[in-house]
Design goal:
There is one protein chain. The protein has 2 domains: about 130 residues, Rossmann fold, CATH 3.40.50; about 45 residues, no CATH class. It contains 10 helices and 4 strands, in the order βααβαααβαβαααα. A 4-stranded parallel β-sheet has the order 2-1-3-4. β3, α6 and β4 form a beta-alpha-beta unit. α9 runs antiparallel to α10. The mean pLDDT is about 95.
């Protein structure tokens, strides 16, 4: 049974990181989860911060995300929210979803909002996406390089390369990018 993980909105916002995280789920290396509330935050912020993005494409991206992985959307967690205490009350829904889904990990860039003392009683741990993906790479050494190759192909540009995907991933997951870059067949000798 794969590890159950909840992806916080801040890791689903950057397009390359989002693509990698979803493909990690599609490869069944983990069972990703999110809520409609998490996606609301992602796409609200994309509309505000990236007015150049076509709203119809954003809507389609959200639909594809929800359709891509079976049982990805967590529902029925709302009754847990009020009993949870974490530094940012607006993030209680993420922990509630993790508890309800039986997740072991919340992947988030906001580790300070999910301190171990508040999560440990629930059997949940918060991990930065870099630490999470480094762990995925260590457990499945070829998976992320294969994902980078698939993303490069999906970009559709004839000159798109896995190294370019890794360069974009490095913004959010620099240690993972370094490890994956070293595993690519055309990696430079160090």
């Amino acid at each position: 049974m794969p590890l159950v993980v909840v992806y916080d909105a801040n890791v689903l916002y950057p397009s390359t990181l989002r693509d990698v995280l979803i493909r990690v789920g599609l490869a069944r290396l983990v069972q990703p989860k999110w809520t409609e509330q998490i996606l609301d935050e992602v796409f609200r912020n994309l509309r505000v911060n990236r007015p150049d993005l076509d709203p119809a494409r954003l809507k389609r991206t959200r639909e594809l995300m929800n359709a891509s992985i079976r049982d990805v959307t967590v529902t029925g967690f709302e009754q847990l929210i009020e009993q949870l205490t974490i530094p940012d009350p607006h993030d209680r829904h993420v922990l509630a979803a993790a508890i309800h889904a039986g997740a072991q990990v919340i992947v988030t860039k906001n580790l300070r909002d999910f301190p171990a003392p508040a999560l440990t009683p629930w059997g949940v741990e918060a991990q930065h996406p870099d630490a999470f993906l480094t762990s995925v790479h260590q457990n499945h050494p070829d998976a992320l390089s294969d994902i980078a190759k698939a993303i490069a192909r999906a970009w559709g540009a004839p000159d798109a390369t896995p190294a370019q995907v890794i360069d974009r991933l490095a913004v959010d997951a620099p240690q993972t990018a370094k490890l994956v870059r070293a595993s690519l067949p055309d990696a430079p000798a160090t």
